[in-house]
Amino acid sequence: MKPIALKLAGTILIADPSGAIWWPDTRTLIVADLHFEKGAAFARRGALLPPYDTRATLAALSALIQRLDPVSVVALGDSFHDARGADHLHGDDATTLAALVRRQDWIWVAGNHDPAPGPALGGRVVADALAVGPLTLRHEALRGASPGELSGHFHPKAGISIHGRRLTCRCFVADETRVILPAFGSYTGGLDVRDPAISGLFPGGFDAYLAGKTRLTMIPFPKGTRPQQELPLD
């Protein structure tokens, strides 16, 4: 794995190709938009998806926790796809998730999909924003927020061309004031970083860090420009 160090409000954060942020000074792992039980939520509406999203997301999260051994885990909202998601966890998945939550201090930040996420699974629920040292952790970026904001919500994605082939990848979006994390969940779509909902939060431009299998590729998005270069991605 080849992570990238980001500096935010004087704090060094590690952007991991998995889509998570690792804060080494506090041994805190930060993930966004797990969307557990999205497949089940769609099935209840008649749109059938393979029912393996929760298990795949749990496997990725378990591997990350095993690798980094965090003291704290913060889930930045939309951990479940809807307010009933925790109730619909398969027995084995519920056991796995509860065991992960017990391993360390676990904080659920409420999102728009899950206003009261996972209380039966343990951990603490934060309704709005969590202040930790110089950083503020919330679900959705707040316009005009003080420097040091970490958030999710938008599922940012960006595209690159590789030998004439266009690929779209989930990505981190960052400037000197805030970082938006990609969605960690297996069944999550994405919003192009050039969409005003994202780009409007970065009036001076931003960098996108596209997540490959083992490393991140940085693409600058200066104010008012669109990159047209071919970059390697693995």
Question: Brief description of this entry?
Answer:
Helices cover 17% and strands 32% of the residues. The protein is of the alpha/beta class. The strands form two sheets. Strands 8, 9, 10, 11, 12, 13, 14, 15 and 16 form a nine-stranded mixed sheet that branches.
Task: Describe, in plain words, how this protein is organized in 3D.
The chain is of the alpha/beta class and 234 residues long. The chain has one domain: Purple Acid Phosphatase, chain A, domain 2 (4-Layer Sandwich), CATH 3.60.21. Helices cover 17% and strands 32% of the residues. A hairpin with a 4-residue loop joins strand 3 and strand 4. Helix 2 packs parallel to helix 3.
The first-level CATH class name: Alpha Beta
What percentage of amino acids are in beta strands? Answer: 25-35%
Architecture per CATH nomenclature, i.e. the level-2 architecture:
4-Layer Sandwich
Number of strands: 16
Helix share of residues?
Answer: 10-25%
Please give the oligomerization state of what you see: single chain
Question: What is the C-alpha radius of gyration, as a whole number of Å?
Answer: 17 Å
Instruction: Return the domain count.
Output: 1
User: Can you count the helices?
Assistant: 4
Terminal residue distance: 11 Å
Briefly note the CATH topology name.
Answer: Purple Acid Phosphatase, chain A, domain 2
Mean pLDDT: 85
Q: Show unreliable segments.
A: 39-47, 227-234
Largest sheet: number of strands, sense, barrel closure? 9 strands, mixed
| General shape | globular
Question: How are helices and strands ordered from N to C?
Answer: EEEEHHEHEEEEEEEEEHEE
Find the structural class using helix and strand composition: alpha/beta
